[in-house]
Amino acid sequence: MKDGSVYEGELYGRRDAVGEVVFTTGMSGYQETLTDPSFCEQIVVMTYPLVGNYGVNPCFNQGERCFFQGYVVSELCDYPCNWRSEGTLSAFLEQQDVPVLTGVDTRAITRKLRNYGVLKGVVTAADTSEEKVREMLASPDVHDQVKQVTVKEKYEMGEGSYRVAVMDYGIKRNILQYLVSFGCRLTVYPAYTEAEEVLADNPDGIFLSNGPGDPKDLPEVIENIRRMIGRKPIFGICLGHQLLALASGYDTYKMKFGHRGINHPVRDLREHKICISSQNHGYAVDEKSLDDRVEISNVSLNDKTIEGLYYKTHPSFTVQYHPEACPGPGGHEYLFRRFVKMMGGDR
Q1: Could you give the residue ranges of the DSSP H alpha helices within 219-314?
Q2: What is the DSSP code (8-state) at residue 242?
Q3: In a 3-state reduction of DSSP, which class is residue 248?
Q4: Alpha helices in 155-204 (DSSP H)
Q5: Cα–Cα 20 to 30 A to 227, which of 48, 240, 244, 288?
Q6: What is the DSSP letter of 215?
């Protein structure tokens, strides 16, 4: 890694991997994690020791493919056992061209990242020269993740009473299915679609999706959101939460090691309850930048960072986590019901 630390294991894959090294704490849902576009260009370390034990199945995919740079696990299961299994995780990773390093002390990597923050890293063969490793570590950071993961052309799905414009910054399949299940007819737009085109279709509401990377890398997207504020009810999650904050004049910052996993406790201050959430983000909204136009609606019980905002001057609200919980625990359906009520004129 960037600090000079080396972790040896058994390497599978046809290419080298270079990217930000992050860890995720989920005990299950490895295929949903692998196909979550929010992990685009990252090297992901699984803290749970055994991965692949229930195989893979296309029904678990959350994106069109895996956008990982690399994968690091303690133990990769060779013989999965599950009635829905249609193959091994190792075969899936090979098909997706994701290099995987196994037999590694993932606890040691996690401790380092928690103590020192995320680091750039390389997954490569042991005989790779030190000069080449230094060159890879010195390579420019990636800033076009959303452009890689967003849909290329707009499309529609679902039937229902409310028409929702979905801005795709790296949306997961189950989020779309959740919206449809709450009576929404969706039009999914590429991330850089102009605000005027979206508003010309006259949606009842606008959904800002999850996605990868630094929200400040997206000035065109932020400007388009700014032009949509107050025109229609808005519900944003994860990256969409950060983008709406920036479009409203607030600030974001990079976290030390972020929130990634399916066991993060969040307090909902408006509903007076605690939920366990699925999260995948490395940036957060800066509380010091907020003013009286917005109310903090949700906070992390782990580190007190902002997990949700409720806008007082227009019908909009956002959460920092993935409320469809795939993978992860349920209990967040009330957020989708709130969005539907807003589209019906109820704040």
Answers
A1: 219-228, 239-247
A2: H
A3: coil
A4: 173-181, 195-200
A5: 288
A6: G
In this prediction the pTM is: 0.96
Degrees, nearest 5: CA angle 308-144-256: 45
CA gap 296, 319 in Å, rounded: 10
What value does the mean pLDDT take over residues 300-327? Answer: 95
262 contacts 29 by C-beta, under 8 angstroms:
yes
**Sign of the dihedral through C-alpha 227, 230, 231, 233:** positive
Task: Confirm if 252 and 219 have CB atoms less than 8 A apart.
Answer: no
Query: Where residue 347 falls among pLDDT bands split at 50, 70, 90?
Result: low
Per DSSP, the chain holds a count of helices (H) and strands (E) of: 10, 18
Angle value at C-alpha 4, between 12 and 67, nearest 5 degrees: 40
Strand-strand pairing, 50-51 and 252-268 = unpaired
**Which residues are catalytic, by number?**
238, 322, 324
Strand-by-strand arrangement of the 155-157 sheet: 155-157, 184-190, 162-168, 205-208, 234-237, 316-319, 306-311, 294-300, 252-268, 273-285
pLDDT range class, residue 207, cuts 50, 70, 90:
very high
Q: Would strands 70-72 and 42-46 be described as parallel, antiparallel, or unpaired? A: parallel
Amino acid at position 121, single letter: G
- Asked if 307 and 272 count as a contact pair (C-beta separation under 8 A), the reply is no
Q: Is the pLDDT of residue 325 over 90?
A: no
Q: Is the dihedral of CA 80, 59, 172, 310 positive or negative?
A: negative
Going through 80-130 in order, the beta strands assigned E by DSSP cover: 100-102, 119-123
Q: What are phi and psi of 170, to 5 degrees?
A: 135, 40
Q: How large is the greatest C-alpha to C-alpha distance in the chain, in angstroms? A: 63
